[in-house]
Amino acid sequence: MIPGQFEYARPGDVGEALRLLRDREGEAKVLSGGFSLIPLLKLRLAQPGILVDLKEVAGLDRLDEAGGELRIGARVTHARLETSELVVGKYALIAEAARGIGDRQVRNWGTVGGSIAHADPSADWPAVFIALRGSVVARNVDAERVVPARDWFLGVFTTALAPDELVTEVRVPRPAALSGGAYAKLERRAGDFATVGVAAQLSLDGDGRISSAGVGITAVNECAFAATDAEAVLVGSKASEELFRKAAQAAAGQTQPTSDSHGPAEYKRAMTAEMTTRALRTAAERAAANRG
Ligand code: FAD
User: Fold this and answer.
1) Phi-psi label, residue 137: left if phi above 0, alpha if psi -120 to 50, beta otherwise
2) Sign of the CA dihedral 37, 41, 46, 50?
3) Of 159, 167, 215, 221, whose CA–CA distance to 194 is shortest?
């Protein structure tokens, strides 16, 4: 189909973009990579009065460390996170998740800000930033808010973003020594959205006990969520296969999958347990090997 008519703006800075969102609230839609929005425009499921293209907005492509955090600008593509020297190794969970998103074209165009704002129930980034206890920075013309990723995703395609706000960046705490993460994604074919995706981030103390645990899960609930029951099982105990399986059962117990073309609900619950075990096992291995 052909999209309806809309105006098109290409602001050069964040302030100009935010003024457009304020002045045209309710009819303005932001365009980033376009890989989720353009299909919606073509189907006329989205019919904005004006499209605000972020392509030329300066400052949204930062990827650096500051204040003890990794700062990922909203316009940073999945492909950049897959290959960045800063990310690969130190933030293994992020690089691993990036590698599994869509195909090369999707990764070259799709952006972190777009994914976080769109909040597809099967998207990978929500689970990753929940596990890493990251936060989302949202700005309007007057103020900036820093919202924990655990409070950002509210339901199917629903987030804490207000209509006059822009996601400007995502922040992730820099992992300490003896910390490691992993992403385990079950997909029907390479490049598909997840049937289930599990992100795990673990920190160990000197005795091999788990001092902190983050587990984020996607595709088996209305939106990505923190598997807090699994985290409670893990923290304070020595890392072991038995512990991971117990935590994995707790994680599966927090899911509410639906039966669809990816498989019946019971299958998805079982696969959540399996993917959680795998993600925890790899995260613990990486944590033990990370001497800082
Ligand atoms: P856009 O399509 O430009 O925008 C999406 C939405 O977010 C729009 O509502 C837009 O207004 C809003 N928005 C964008 N940027 C901002 C901002 N900075 N502030 C506020 N609102 C904003 N994703 C996965 O996670 N895993 C996959 O395996 C996967 N596979 C895919 C396969 C295919 C074939 C396709 C087409 C997509 C796939 N995706 C997958 C989704 C892909 O990652 C998209 O790129 C992503 O969901 C949206 O990012 P975008 O930059 O394209 O955003």
Assistant:
1) beta
2) positive
3) 221
| Contact in structure between 254 and 146 (CB atoms under 8 Å) | no
Of 30, 41, 122, 153, best ligand 1 pocket probe by most atoms within 8 Å of the beta carbon: 30
d(CA 85, CA 225) in angstroms, rounded, equals 29
Which residues 6+ apart lie within 8 Å of 267 measured at CB?
none
pTM score, whole prediction: 0.97
Give pLDDT tens digits for 52-99: 999 999 999 999 999 999 999 999 999 999 999 999 989 999 999 999
Task: Give how far Cα 189 sits from Cα of 120, 124, 269, Å.
Answer: 18, 15, 19
Residue 60 Cα: closest atom of ligand 1: 18
Alpha carbons 164 and 159: distance in angstroms, whole number: 13
Residues 6+ apart with CB under 8 A from 44: 1, 3, 4
DSSP 263: B
How far does residue 38's CA lie from ligand 1's centre (Å)? Answer: 10
Q: Is 40 in the pocket of ligand 1 (CB under 6 A)?
A: no
Record the tokens describing residue 292, joined without a space. 């800082």
